[in-house]
Amino acid sequence: MYFITVNLPKFSFLLEEFQASSHTIVDWNNFLREVLVDWAFQKTCKEKLGGVGKTVEVDEAKLGKRKYNRGRIIEGQWIFGAIERETKKIFVVAVPDRTHETLLSIIVERIEKGTKIISDCWPSYSRLEEYGFIHETVNHSKNFIDPQSGAHTQNIERNWRELRSKIPKYGRKKDHYAGYLAEYMFLRTYPAIRDRVHEMFQAIGQLYNPSGQTGSVGGETEIVGEDIGRRNEEEEEYEEVEIYLDEWCECYE
């Protein structure tokens, strides 16, 4: 679990480190990404970006590959994201398209009304003011920064460059993009390795509640007794793992 929180060549590193089969490594990576997808969903649902007096940049991009490494992108995944300038908080989600209906529904759901939203001139953003937002645009065909208002989307575009560098170049699968995006959000939200490890445990506990049954009669009492004994053993193992993780954290900080 720890190794998904550090910037290492994960697959080859884990194969060598744990002497595990490739199937096992893939399964564990997928399991942890599933945890992170749930974490990202919970976080973005509970914490909207923006508010009165705050500025949020929004943009859409396509992650994909070009035929023979050149020319127009022919396949890939559309993504949509936003960054709050004042706090640098972000969200990034995979979307089926970049139509008005798709993008507006996400903006209304995840950005507070009264926010100043800055976007490019893509038509899907044209009605934001009707929904209670202040809207400024920059025409990228003419300027990177609007000469009158100073509006730009350079912060969110910088995130696209970082994100593309984190996603595997080979073996990409469209149904894995949600996991890639969630992993990127998680690592960006918690820059310190110790925080990442702690928050990963928290996220696992959120998705897979570790609390056991609390029965009081018959066989249920026996099960609870067994659970308590097992939990004591697990606590001892956890202490050993914690020491191991502390040593790794010191190495990589």
Task: Tell me what the structure shows.
By secondary structure, the protein is of the alpha/beta class. It is built from seven helices and five strands. It has helices at residues 10-18, 22-46, 100-110, 154-166, 177-189, 193-207, 218-252; strands at residues 55-66, 73-84, 90-95, 116-119, 134-137. It has a five-stranded mixed beta sheet with strand order 3-2-1-4-5, with helices on one face. A hairpin with a 6-residue loop joins strand 1 (55-66) and strand 2 (73-84). Helix 2 packs across helix 5 (177-189) and helix 2 packs across helix 6 (193-207).
CATH structural class of the domain at 48-166: Alpha Beta
Can you tell me the CATH superfamily of the domain at 48-166? Ribonuclease H-like superfamily/Ribonuclease H
Shape: globular
Q: Give the topology string: H per helix, E per strand.
A: HHEEEHEEHHHH
**Cα end-to-end separation:** 17 Å
Low-confidence stretches: 213-231, 233-253
CATH architecture title of the domain at 48-166: 2-Layer Sandwich
Helical residue percent? 40-55%
Which fold does the CATH topology of the domain at 48-166 refer to? Nucleotidyltransferase, domain 5
Q: Give the strand content.
A: 15-25%
- In this structure, how is the largest beta sheet organized? 5 strands, mixed
Within the largest sheet, what's the order of strands?
3-2-1-4-5
Work out the radius of gyration: 22 Å
Strand tally, please? 5
Overall SS class: alpha/beta
Overall average pLDDT: 77
Number of helices: 7
